[in-house]
Amino acid sequence: MHKLLFLCFLPLLATFQTPDNQLTEKEKNQGWVLLFDGKSTAGWRTYKNLPDNSWEVVDGQLHCKSDAEGATQRADLVTKNSYNSFEIQVDWKIEKGSNSGLLYHVLETRKEAYETGPEYQMIDDLGYNGKLENWQKSGADYAMHPPSAPMSKPAGEYNHTLLVVEGSHTTHWLNGKIVADFYAWTPEWDKLKADGKWKDYPDYGISKTGLIDLQNHGGGIWIKNVKIRKL
Description:
This protein is mainly β. The protein has one domain (about 35-230): Exo-inulinase, domain 1 (Jelly Rolls, Sandwich). The chain has three helices and 13 strands; from the N terminus they run ααβββββββββββαββ. It has helices at about 1-15, 25-30, 185-195; strands spanning about 35, 45, 55-60, 60-65, 75-85, 85-95, 100-105, 120-125, 160-165, 170-175, 175-185, 210-215, 220-230. The strands form two sheets. Strands 1, 3, 4, 6, 9, 10, 11 and 13 form an eight-stranded antiparallel beta sheet that branches. A five-stranded antiparallel beta sheet has the order 2-5-12-7-8, with no helix packed on it. The radius of gyration is 19 Å and the shape is globular.
């Protein structure tokens, strides 16, 4: 009888998931910290403290509004703390045709965050208006290392990102698969920078510590379950 009762509950157990924007006891013990509580943008501020009215919290999700939704002032969101070696998890979905990114080691020494901080690309691969180069697709180390395989979900569906930065070694995960794995500040990395988009941005990628940045690229990004731990 007890065995039959247990079997009846198996489907319920299989579908149980940790509620959004919360940490399990195991995650707490491992040193994970929430960067988004699902209720407010506490823990974040705008890049260079610029004015912004595009970011909002809706139903436990951090949303960046489009111009059509009333956004008139835009700025990236950055963490209040700086990070060196770390791993960060983010669940995100993109609206049709939209573009965003997760930047790190960001300094506030330039006009735009992307001038200093490397970017984990988040974009509507299938519905973006225009041709995308491989280094522009979701999961890429933007303008440096393209994703090894197309792993993003269609617009409107949540993706899971894990970004691991440990010293010079960086790994991009997208929906459970490694899509980029590289070392910064090597001869190969220097050549990619010198030959590509970042050749005219001397501060790009040079810092070994800095802010985490959620890019505001015209809106259309939804984010939840942002958690980080230092390595």
